[in-house]
Every structure is written in C-alpha cells, then in structure tokens.
Amino acid sequence: MFKYMLNKMLLSMKKRYDYDVGYLQDILQTDAKAFLKLMAFQTMSSHTGNLPPAVLFAARLRAIIWDDCGPCTQLIVNLALEAEVNPAIVQAIVDRDLNKLPEDIALVVEFTELVLAHDPEADNLRARILALWGKKGLVAIGYSISSSRVYPALKYTLGYGKTCSRVRVNDLSLAPTRPA
Q1: Where are the alpha helices (H) located in 18-70, listed in sequence order?
Q2: 83 and 104 in one domain?
Q3: Distance CA 19, CA 71 (A)
Q4: From CA 40, how far away is CA 67, in angstroms rounded?
Q5: Each residue of 102-155: pLDDT tens digit?
Q6: E strand or H helix at 80
Q7: Which InterPro entries does the entry link to (predicted)?
Q8: Any bridge partners for residue 173, and if so which?
Q9: What single-letter DSSP state applies at residue 50?
C-alpha cells in the first residue's frame, strides 16, 4: 500500500509537469528506503534562503543545463514559470543572454557557470553575491547549484539520461545555450 501511494504521487507529478518519472518509479520499486532518502533530499533542493525565485532558478537552470540535455531542464523551466518567474527572464537564462537579464540574475548565471567549471574567477563574483544576499543567500545559491546536478547524474547512472530535446518556455521552443 505504501509503494502504491508513493507511485500515485509520482503519477501526479508526471501529469502535472509532463515529466517522465520512470527513473523515480524504478527506484521506488527497487528500494523504497532509497526512494525515501531521495525524497528527503528535496528539503535541500527546495531551500530558498529567502532569495527571490528568479535568483534561485537562474542557478538551478544553468546548473541543470550544464549536465542535462532536455527533460530535467524542461522540468526546472516549468517550475520557474509556476513560481511566477517572468517568462522573458526564464528564456534569457536558458539562452544565456546576459544582456536581457537584470544585473543580479546575470551575476548568478555567470557565478553558477564559473563554480561548475571550478574557475577561480568565481571568487570575484562570490564577493558580489555576499554583498547582495549575505552568507544565507550564498548557501541557498550553492544548494540550488549542487542539488540540481543530482537528478541528471542519477538518471544517467540508471540509464534514463539518453533523451535530448528542446525546451519550451510558454510558446517558444529553445535549444539551451551551453557554456563554451
């Protein structure tokens, strides 16, 4: 009965976001304890540190684009739109069009990619982030970056990370811009 209820939750997610939950169902059927641990992980990935949604979704989107080629990125786009992040901002984040982003969002986009590249230049941007949002904000951005990377890694490990696709932001179809 327990697995049945959890599977119903997954099917609801699948319907709500048009997202393939097959890998989650696989984990649930294989090892319910492992599934519950992944669900507990959601508390980390949902931490906001009281930052505006657009700031957090800038980090999440750029991190997911770094590791994914479509379905997880689409889920994060859908979540950003559901959180009422302006679609033009979401599009500019996906396109990595820094000129169309507010300065704070562009800062997070650049910082996220430097962190993922292990580039020492991230130190300069970290100071600006600390000045804007303090250590609580930096932790929230760090959680957004690191937690977003778990899902593509898990999907590819389990053999579910083979589908590449374009991403939709409302009526626009985009190919996410990856760092050079």
Answers
A1: 22-30, 32-45, 53-67
A2: yes
A3: 7
A4: 22
A5: 999 999 999 999 999 999 999 999 999 999 999 999 999 999 999 999 988 999
A6: helix 71-82
A7: AhpD-like
A8: 168
A9: T
